Amino acid sequence: MKATANIAVWWDMKDCPIPEGYEAGQVRSSLEAAFKEQGYSGPVSITAYGDQTQTPDHILKGLLSTEVSVAHTKSGFGEMATSESSSCYNDDHIRSGGR
């Protein structure tokens, strides 16, 4: 399958932290490669949500250096699934990490 579309990623950094051994600067390229592998292409918009007062500076700098938007939410504000992106959690492919 091949499809071209605007791709938006809403990323809950608390519930889905950067995996051990990965650099924050690898997030965009990893996601874009996964979309391409699945046959999707198009501009990718990534927004990372979380309590940015608890996010180390090197992670914030790594994300921002690759044009990942960073949105601050209060610690304990609630699960991201309650926000506008809750439908993404209903996709088995996304929950499995694209495997």
Beta percentage is 15-25%
Fraction of helical residues: 10-25%
Number of distinct helices = 3
User: How can the largest sheet be summarized?
Assistant: 3 strands, parallel
For the biggest β-sheet, the strand order reads 2-4-5
Mean pLDDT across residues: 81
Order of SSEs, N→C? EEHEEHEH
Q: Outline, from the CA principal axes?
A: elongated
**How many separate domains?**
1
Oligomer: single chain
Tally of strands: 5
Overall radius of gyration: 14 Å
Structural class: alpha/beta
Low-confidence stretches: 81-99
CA distance, first residue to last residue: 16 Å
Protein architecture, described:
The protein has one domain (3-93). Helix content is 24%, strand content 21%. Residues 81-99 have low confidence and may be disordered. β4 (44-50), α2 and β5 (69-72) form a beta-alpha-beta unit. By secondary structure, it is α/β, with parallel strands linked by helices. It contains 3 helices and 5 strands, in the order ββαββαβα. The strands form 2 sheets. Strands 2-4-5 form a 3-stranded parallel sheet, with helices on one face. The protein has a two-stranded parallel sheet with strand order 1-3. The chain is elongated, with a radius of gyration of 14 Å. Residues 6-72 form the NYN domain. This is NYN domain-containing protein. GO terms for molecular function: RNA nuclease activity. One of its GO terms (biological process) is regulation of gene expression. InterPro entries: Marf1, NYN.
